[in-house]
Amino acid sequence: YSSDKIRNFSIIAHVDHGKSTLADRLLELTGTIRKGHGQPQYLDKLQVERERGITVKAQTATMFHKHSFLRTETEFLMNLIDTPGHVDFSYEVSRSLAACQGALLVVDAAQGVQAQTVANFYLAFESNLTIIPVINKIDQPTADPDRIKAQLKSMFDLDPSEALLTSAKTGQGLEQVLPAVIERIPPPPGKSNSLLRMLLLDSYYDEYKGVICHVAVVDGALQKGEKISSAATGQSYEVLDVGIMHPELIPTGMLLTGQVGYIVSGMRSTKEARVGDTLYHTRSTVEPLPGFKPAKHMVFSGLYPADGSDFEALNHAIERLTCNDASVSVTKESSSALGLGFRCGFLGLLHMDVFHQRLEQEHGAHVISTVPTVPYIFEYADGSKKHIHNPATLPSNPKQRVTACWEPTVTATIIIPSEYVGSVITLCSERRGEQLEHSFIDSQRAFMKYRLPLREIVVDFYNELKSITSGYASFDYEDADYQDSDLVKLDILLNGQPVDAMATIVHRLKAQRVGRELVEKLKKYIDRQMFEITIQAAIGSKVIARETVSAMRKNVLAKCYGGDVTRKRKLLEKQKEGKKRMKRIGSVDIPQEAFHELLKVS
Ligand code: GDP
Ligand code: MG
């Protein structure tokens, strides 16, 4: 396939507008996967993706499609890259777009342009991609394609006559999609007679083959058996296997200019496979490709083994999983309450949740995660500045006086039906937001931009926004600068002892309320034990909230009337089972859920 017969495109959209379904239909249409293969969302391979109905990893599939172009029928090789829609994973989207010349911008025919439609449009637009608008779900009774066309025109200056109308559900209009891709999206621009330059798009670890890298051949060509080097590490490798994702790996022995495919090169760990790296023929000299901006970690949380003993097992599980998710940062840390563990940086809370779930499901780890925090910057009297990723590392009674602190902010895009404007403004000002823009997409929809502290949106903002707008709001954000802020450390004390894993950093004006809520939440989750437990929230030495859990002797056998031995044993086992999910801090047993609940207070 010479590069004029290659098309690389991606599908971008707001979550749930039908990207994955459309990708499935295109794979079926080209005979790449069988129709009725019994697996909806073929490209959503991970268990978390299937359970939550979201795409987490971008996936690539190569398809072949015959098309009559200039009267001769030609077979085209088309690489489709399905992308995640959730804001946490926009990093994956921008990476995928680097290998594409065009994108299908899918918009739900009833819902219209939403916050991530806007974000994704600009990602594609800034990468100079050809954008084909696809108005999907036209089978819905409330579909209004003309209204959506008008929105696309007014928001993005897209020509309404270029929009394709489809239903990925009924199949209507799908036959126009691939011809439009072939005719409107340019072939990859690389030079086939130049030295090899390959962009490393992604990597994962396979039990049998080792590290598998997804690559886009920008210039030149690659053959099996050749020696390649990494621009980032200088390491050299032999190409042991090379081929395409069809979508299963199909060895082809080579990849030509403009192709997207995989290589296996004897890398021992995915740490060697740096996403965005340039690979080239060993002993040739090339200018490295621009690569990607590194992932930005928005939230940090401690991960600790739930049953104390198996730190090594957790260590192993995290190592394995980070092989397939290089966007997590991991450093060892220790907590006096929880022992040895890890401080991990995530792209957002959903990313954190997904990582946690994958650790448990795919790697059998049992994990307690501590209250997440955003990265703050503190300045001390001696002029030194510290990045704080763990509130516990901030002294409660600093001898060195804190002279200034800064918190990260985001620029948020919110799209809502006009009647909710008032309540959204109230919510945003409660969350310390500053309005940057307020306009209308059409007569029914308002568009707002806010600058908000990251801390205020990381937890529960989206749920709150959804609930005050009857589910109609859509929301997206990108990171903005740090702003100075009046922050304090809030300690939680159990029986007078501060629990480092429960410390948080809050805005001074919110400390009172957050402290109150935290101790009330904890009281609900801590069972009565054989002694009284006091729960306190404090700023420095000043206690701002307090609750007590009174003592009670818990006797599971009290429920047993007769002397039924098996029943007795069952109950005892049940109690043991319950204990497993507890974490003993000092002399107090804290259930795992308590940690999870604390994170919902903001
Ligand atoms: P993604 O989040 O953009 O990948 O969206 P999905 O492909 O997962 O689709 C979200 C939901 O919309 C699923 O329940 C699909 O079955 C449904 N859906 C997708 N395309 C259509 C369509 O053309 N018509 C209708 N009625 N439903 C669709
Ligand atoms: Mg999807």
UniProtKB/TrEMBL annotation:
E.C. number(s) listed in UniProt: 3.6.5.n1
Highest taxon listed in the record's lineage: Eukaryota
Domain Tr-type G span(s) in chain numbering: 4-189
Main subcellular localisation: mitochondrion
PROSITE patterns: G_TR_1, G_TR_2
InterPro entries: EF-4, EFG_III/V, EFG_V-like, G_TR_CS, LepA_C_sf, LepA_CTD, LepA_IV, P-loop_NTPase
Assigned GO CC terms: mitochondrial inner membrane; mitochondrial matrix
Membrane topology: Peripheral membrane protein
Reactions catalysed according to its record: GTP + H2O = GDP + phosphate + H(+)
GO molecular-function term, one example from the UniProt record: GTPase activity
Binding site for GTP: 13-20, 82-86, 136-139
Localization in the cell: Mitochondrion inner membrane
Residues spanning the membrane: none
Keywords per UniProt: GTP-binding, Hydrolase, Membrane, Mitochondrion, Mitochondrion inner membrane, Nucleotide-binding, Protein biosynthesis
Biological process, per Gene Ontology: positive regulation of translation; translation
Function comment: Promotes mitochondrial protein synthesis. May act as a fidelity factor of the translation reaction, by catalyzing a one-codon backward translocation of tRNAs on improperly translocated ribosomes. Binds to mitochondrial ribosomes in a GTP-dependent manner.
Family: Belongs to the GTP-binding elongation factor family. LepA subfamily.
Name the record gives this protein: Translation factor GUF1 homolog, mitochondrial
Organism of origin: Olea europaea subsp. europaea
Lineage, opening ranks: Eukaryota, Viridiplantae, Streptophyta, Embryophyta, Tracheophyta
